Amino acid sequence: MTSIATPAAAPQRRPRPVVLEFMRQQPLGAVSFVVIVAMMFAGIFAEWVAPYDPLNIDFGAMLAGPSWEHWTGTDAFGRDTFSRIIYGARTALVIGFSSSLLGSTLGLLLGASCAYFGGRVDIVIQRFVDIMLSFPIIVLALVVVAVLGKWKVLGIDVNLVFAIAIPITPNVTRIVRAAALSVRAMPYIDAAKAAGYSHVRIIGRHMLPNLMAPYLIMLTAYIAQAILLEASLSFLGLGVAEPTPAWGLMLSGNASDFFREAPWMVIFPGLAISLAVFAFSLFGDALRDWLDPKFKT
Predict the structure, then answer these.
(1) In a domain, 8, yes or no
(2) 66 in a domain, yes or no?
(3) CATH number at residue 229
(4) Domain membership of residue 248 as a residue range
(5) Is residue 224 part of a domain?
(6) Quick one: CA dihedral 253, 258, 263, 264, positive or negative?
(7) Is residue 24 part of a domain?
(8) Per-10-residue mean pLDDT for the chain, 297 residues long?
(9) Could you say which of 90, 160, 174, 226 would form a disulfide bridge with 43 (CB–CB 3.0 to 4.6 Å)?
(10) Any long-range contacts for 265-273 (C-beta under 8 Å, 24+ apart)?
């Protein structure tokens, strides 16, 4: 009796770690993530990273150009520009993340409610969203800042957070509503309603978890817009006030007055804003491509 040899089973490939797979498929997103981590590190540990106190005035070093002592020069008060840029990263990230988190969360709840309840609730919220979208985002932010005035909690400009979050909310509401309509049509939603579950439980346990992908994408992407809005409001004198280090504030006032004599006062803060906005925008696009099955290869 002869035995039939069976081919050996092919060794199974071990799946790559999620981070490595993300880096392979989204190289620009990986580079952007490194830039974001570097910004977060600089903002959190600014006391140890910055070579000088950002509030320290040195009249003997006024308008000093870039050198080994001051890498990006000094401003009209002799303050080290590089140190103020590092501390400005903390301001930009705190206000940008807080505004994006608040605006995206409100948009998530409103969009899910529109899709779930429909009818008059959907009509009223959507018409309100249309009204808000008819205003340019910077104009809407200016109106909110003017209405709220100066309002600080734990050192954070809460009025600025609300002024940036409110213009973000209608855009997120529309996108979440479109995704929530498909979730609302799923059989398990009807089954949950037939079982007698409350509206809050159905939305919270059955709809919101399935909307986390678009929510996280918009939360990340709108941080870039929030940072840009914060810089714009600070530049106009309606955001962060002196002597707090902020990128938009560094571009206004003395920076514009001494642009010809000391261009580094404008160039380096402008580069910091551009780098932060590009990093968060590219990372948001990469995260969308990674989480959306239609874009995966």
Answers:
(1) no
(2) no
(3) 1.10.3720.10
(4) 41-46+72-295
(5) yes
(6) negative
(7) no
(8) 49 59 76 90 90 84 82 84 90 90 92 88 90 84 78 71 89 90 85 84 86 87 89 81 82 69 84 91 82 56
(9) 90
(10) 265/73, 265/75, 265/76, 265/81, 268/72, 268/73, 268/81, 268/82, 268/85, 269/81, 269/85, 269/88, 272/85, 272/88, 272/89, 272/247, 273/92, 273/227, 273/228, 273/231, 273/247, 273/248
Give the C-alpha separation, 275 to 281, whole Å: 10
- Count H helices and E strands in the chain, helices first: 13, 2
The single residue listed with the structure tokens 């040899």 is: 5
Q: Which of 218, 222, 245, 221 is nearest to 234 (CA)?
A: 245
Greatest pairwise CA separation for the chain in angstroms: 100
Q: Tokens in use for 291?
A: 């989480």
Pull the structure tokens for residue 163.
């002024």
pTM score, two decimals? 0.83
| CA distances (Å), origin 107, targets 14, 56, 214, 215 | 39, 42, 11, 9
Residue with tokens 């600025």: 160
Number of structural domains (the chain) is 1
